[in-house]
Design a protein that fits this description.
By secondary structure, this protein is of the alpha/beta class. It has 2 domains: 3-100 and 291-304, ornithine cyclodeaminase, domain 1; 117-288, NAD(P)-binding Rossmann-like Domain (Rossmann fold, 3-Layer(aba) Sandwich), CATH 3.40.50.720. The chain has helices spanning 8-14, 17-32, 96-115, 132-142, 155-166, 180-183, 227-231, 240-246, 248-256, 267-271, 290-304, and strands at 3-6, 36-37, 42-44, 49-56, 61-69, 77-85, 91-95, 122-126, 147-151, 173-177, 189-192, 210-214, 234-237, 264-266, 281-285. A hairpin with a 7-residue loop joins strand 5 (61-69) and strand 6. The radius of gyration is 18 Å and the shape is globular.
């Protein structure tokens, strides 16, 4: 029996964003096909402590993640991901912060590849925290970017993020902004990665055709998107039970009567359906589900537990 422990650097060096996107895409398809046993996550202290688990029936493997979330520290996410299988005694333990940001970015990559215009190359990213870089990497992987606008009230953090991404994005033009409303006006793709408790911009600020990813709000008290955007868009979610329990945007819009549960479609369902025209405005709302962590953990297990 052996236990492999991986830190953030180990995870980053082992799994590329392309690999992560492919693995998470397969996971969403498996989720739609009933392959997973996946309880709604346990949230303590209003989401500052989280426990998530997933069992993949075909491989007899399971993942359990425990973490703490504190936006007043850096990094905000700390904890561990444990992967094991019934077929062997070995287990893998990986840094939860690296796995979480990577799998969240990967889900956005899957959704953007499916929903954004084929020629989309202008991304507006709102938020410059720990999730931000992988949001950009994921979108760039499926829609090579010519323009990136980073929106943050913390301009020093935004410039640091821009410096980090500059070498990775090649010739992409990067600019810094502080006003979300003006920054989204010419975007092809918008990524929201903030701990906001009220909408970041009005629906009217967006162009007629745009794809929006919202991953920052993961509790009922948090919101990044306005009701009007959800009402006028095709809304794709990661998993119905999860967003009904945890997504402030979805809960608020349902209570306001501007959308119904019938108007919410899980990403896995769209991936396994015939191609469709989803209209000019699409939204991917994700609170994050354990299957995504399992998908990254399985990649790591395949590489390190041989």
């Amino acid at each position: 029996m052996k236990t492999i422990s991986l830190n953030e650097r180990d995870v980053r060096e082992a799994v590329s964003m392309r690999e992560a996107i492919d693995a998470v895409r397969g996971g969403f398809i498996g989720l739609a096909g009933g392959e997973f046993e996946m309880p709604t996550r346990t949230a303590l202290r209003d989401g500052q402590f989280l426990v998530m688990s997933a069992h993949h029936r075909p491989t007899r493997s399971a993942m359990i993640k425990t973490l703490s979330v504190n936006f007043d520290r850096a990094p905000a996410i700390a904890g561990s991901v444990v992967w094991s299988t019934l077929d062997r005694l070995d287990q893998l333990i990986a840094d939860a912060g690296a796995v979480t940001t990577l799998r969240t970015g990967a889900a956005v990559g899957v959704a953007t590849d499916l929903l954004a215009a084929p020629d989309a190359d202008r991304l507006t990213l709102i938020g410059a925290g720990g999730q931000a870089a992988d949001q950009v990497r994921a979108v760039h992987t499926v829609r090579p970017l010519r323009h990136l606008t980073i929106v943050s009230t913390n301009t020093r953090r935004a410039r640091s993020l821009a410096d980090t991404l500059h070498a990775e994005l090649g010739g992409t033009e990067i600019r810094i902004a502080t006003d979300p409303s003006s920054a989204v006006s010419d975007a092809h793709v918008v990524c929201c990665a903030t701990p906001a408790t009220s909408p970041l911009f009005p629906e009217s600020a967006l162009p007629a055709r745009v794809h929006v990813n919202a991953i920052g709000a993961f509790r009922p008290t948090m919101r990044e998107l306005p009701d009007e955007l959800l009402a006028g868009s095709t809304v794709i979610i990661d998993e119905l039970d999860a967003v009904l329990e945890e997504s402030g945007e979805i809960i608020h819009a349902l209570q306001s009567g501007v959308i119904t549960e019938d108007g919410l479609t899980e990403l896995g369902t769209v991936l396994t359906s015939a191609p469709a025209d989803h209209g000019n405005r699409t939204v991917f709302k994700s609170v994050g589900v354990a299957m995504q962590d399992w998908a990254i953990a399985r990649l790591l297990a395949d590489k390190f537990l041989r």
